[in-house]
Amino acid sequence: MHSEDIKLLMKQASGKSVISFAGGMPNNDLFPVKQIDDIYNSLPEDIKKLCFQYGPTSGYPPLIKSLQSYLEKKGLPVQDNKILITTGSLQAISIITQEFINEGDIVLTENPCFVGALSVFETFGAEIHSIPIDKDGIDIKALKRKITSLDRTPKFLYVTPNYHNPAGIIYTPERKKELLEVLSGTGIILLEDDAYSDLYFNEDEKYLTKPMKSFGIQGVDIIYTGSFSKILGPGFRLGYMLSSPEIFEKAETIKQALDACTSNFMQILGNEFLAQHKLESYLKFLRSEYLERKNLLQQSLEKYMPNTVTWNEPKGGFYIWLKLPSHIKSTDIFKESVTNGVVFVTGRTFDPASIKDDRLRLSFSNMPKDSIEKGVIILAKAVKKVLKNAKVKSS
Ligand SMILES: Cc1ncc(COP(=O)(O)O)c(C=O)c1O
């Protein structure tokens, strides 16, 4: 079960004494602590009181309004759709799964796939079928083959097209379009998870992050989810979904039964951050900080990794996805590196079948800059040792 992988991951990611490339989390030292202090301190007394109160299930109305203009800037069709504020975007994924999935229904995912989503799909008894991705996005031929080979129509396809977790890739605009064309008319809903799109490294490549829901292709129902976790901090537990009014209505009822509403405290602080136009300058700062960490990690990998280990250079987000020679496993490297104080996430964690293990995910986001090189030296030693042992065994 992927839920066990997640429990282990959360523990490793927050371990103090290890060098952790494991956590898919923002950097502790970059949080906008002072800005949030100022925002709260300058709130009028009546809004402070509202922070402590319940609110509407769909969300704090001023936040919905701020989000509408934020999402409109991404080209999203906000007027024809409705926003539901959720307690993290994982809750949105969970609500959508509850809305559409009965035990044994088919969900399509990418392979590899965000492990949190896999855990949700498994919890609701979905039959998961996964489709490989390459450096440009989901494998279109494999997706077509999969859809025609199934005896039932899948309920939805879940994808993370922008700065994929764990693969670090971004879909090309062509691949996004092809994907929509394949789905159009099939009755398969597209669940577009967009947790990382604001974290591009290069302004010139911002256009690549354009959501599929903004493409205007007919015949495919798209539910778009987003999150404040990777930009303001997961402690906010603030996410949202944008969907047709019909999908929204049932989702709102499910959310009502789950937690009545997302914390008003966090919604009010999040809204002020947006409404006072603090987000854009903060994002500029984050982008340069994460780019610096990505460059440091990449330089260290180039310097220390054996040349049989390869990877794609990410254009944004938090992750580098290493490819190992196919005869060694990332689980074996993990066993070796953890004893020397370095952790990461093994490839099999992100395989819906928990088998494929020739990859490993390194997260550079929550890394002190001066630990990156040290961590890679230890990791490279572990890789070399596992490679050497494999050679001895085969000779
Ligand atoms: C691809 C992806 N989607 C969704 C989430 C969930 O984020 P949250 O529930 O914190 O909004 C994550 C967190 O790691 C993620 O990587």
Could you walk me through the main structural features you see in this protein, from its secondary elements to its overall organization?
By secondary structure, the chain is α/β, with parallel strands linked by helices. It folds into 2 domains: 2-31 and 281-390, Alpha-Beta Complex (Aspartate Aminotransferase, domain 1), CATH 3.90.1150.10; 33-275, Aspartate Aminotransferase, domain 2. It is 44% helix and 15% strand. The protein has helices at 2-13, 33-41, 45-51, 61-73, 89-100, 115-123, 140-149, 173-183, 245-259, 264-275, 279-304, 330-339, 369-394, and strands spanning 19-20, 82-86, 106-111, 127-134, 137-138, 156-159, 189-193, 222-227, 239-243, 310-311, 319-323, 342-343, 345-346, 359-363. The strands form 3 sheets. It has an 8-stranded mixed beta sheet with strand order 2-9-8-7-6-3-4-5, sandwiched between helices. Strands 10-11-14-13 form a 4-stranded antiparallel beta sheet. The longest helix is centred in the C-terminal third of the chain and has 26 residues, at 279-304. It is globular, with a radius of gyration of 21 Å. The mean pLDDT is 95. The structure holds pyridoxal-5'-phosphate. Pyridoxal-5'-phosphate (PLP) binds next to α5. Keywords: Aminotransferase, Pyridoxal phosphate, Transferase. This is PLP-dependent aminotransferase family protein. Residues 39-375 form the Aminotransferase class I/classII large domain.
